[in-house]
Amino acid sequence: MITVAQITDTHLFAHDSTEWKGVNPDRTLNQVIAKVQQLDPLPDVILLTGDLSQDETPESYQRLQTKLQPLNIPTYWLPGNHDRPELMSQILPNKPFLGDKTFKMGHWRFILLNSAVKGQPEGFLTTDTISFLASELSQDNSPTLVAVHHHPLAINSLVMDSMMLANGAELINLLGSFPQVKMVIFGHIHSVFDTYLEGVRYLGCPSTCLQLNHQSTEITLDDLPPGFRLLYLQDDGTFDTIIKRLS
Predict the structure, then answer these.
(1) Which strands sit side by side in the sheet containing 45-49, from one edge to the other?
(2) What helix, strand, coil percent values describe the chain, rounded to 5?
(3) Which among 92, 78, 170, 107 has a CA at the least distance from the CA of 133?
(4) What is the pLDDT of residues 185-203, one digit of tens each?
(5) Is 164 exposed, middle or buried (0-12, 13-18, 19+ CB in 10 A)?
(6) Which string of DSSP letters, residue by residue, matches 162-229?
């Protein structure tokens, strides 16, 4: 079995005292990491699914690196709409951080997609990215987890669905033709989401900082605590998942 920790939407700033909408992202991430450290055994891999920085500064990524390095868990990342991929590549190249966007662990294949569009809140997968994904899936029929920042299907949120993955339907159609794809995990929505579509499970994850309530017609905070997702991947391609939140 492989245990995966999905940590997403950390929204760190250059200064650790900076608050965002009444929440200190630095402090809440520290608390989430402490909760990960308490797991026994520790996760085999960490997937960071975007919006790791809020102010897009080198210092924010350096702080993230400093916080996660002591865990010594292989850590893969992809950018979100608040990130700067070129800075991420410069600052997060050293172990346990890994820049690979496709890798195998045990019986499972992992594919990380960049859906960020510079200067835009919504996401888009380029033709090259779609071609890369199709090629990777055609070469290996191992059970597969796909990770992306933006949600590829509507979550019934007037606000967030206006900044989802613009060509999400193209991604869903492609993945539906490859039965080895078991799930798509994503961040961006700062809340839990869980549904099946065309044989694939689509999973949204809480943020490590503020949470969003999607019942409103405007951006509204939820009073749920920060959290992360754990995935337990079995050798036969089945899996279980739970959400862990701070007390």
Answers:
(1) 97-98, 75-78, 45-49, 2-7, 227-233, 239-245
(2) 25, 30, 45
(3) 170
(4) 999 999 999 999 989 999 9
(5) buried
(6) GGSBTTHHHHHHHHHT-TTEEEEEE-SSSS-EEEEETTEEEEE---SS-EEETTSSS-EEE-PPPEEE
Q: Is 246 exposed, middle or buried (0-12, 13-18, 19+ CB in 10 A)?
A: middle
pTM exceeding the 0.70 threshold for the entire prediction: yes
Dig out the tokens for 19 from the structure: 């608050």
**41, 46, 45: which is closest to 29 by C-alpha?**
46
Nearest to 190 by CA among 21, 4, 75, 66: 21
155 CB burial (10 A radius; 0-12, 13-18, 19+): middle
Which pLDDT band, with edges at 50, 70 and 90, does 130 fall under?
very high
Dig out the tokens for 113 from the structure: 């997609």
Q: What does residue 86 show for φ and ψ, rounded to 5 degrees?
A: -70, -35
The domain spans of the chain are 2-245
Query: CB neighbours of 120 closer than 8 A, spacing ≥ 6?
Result: 81
- Side chain identity at residue 154, one-letter code: A
Give me the phi and psi of 154, to 5 degrees please.
-65, 140
Distance, C-alpha 242 to centroid of its chain: 15
- Domain 2-245: CATH superfamily, name plus number: Metallo-dependent phosphatases (3.60.21.10)
Residue 98: enclosing H or E segment and its boundaries? strand 97-98
The closest of 36, 45, 51 to 4, measured between CA atoms, is 45
What are 137-162's pLDDT values in tens digits?
999 999 999 999 999 999 998 889 99
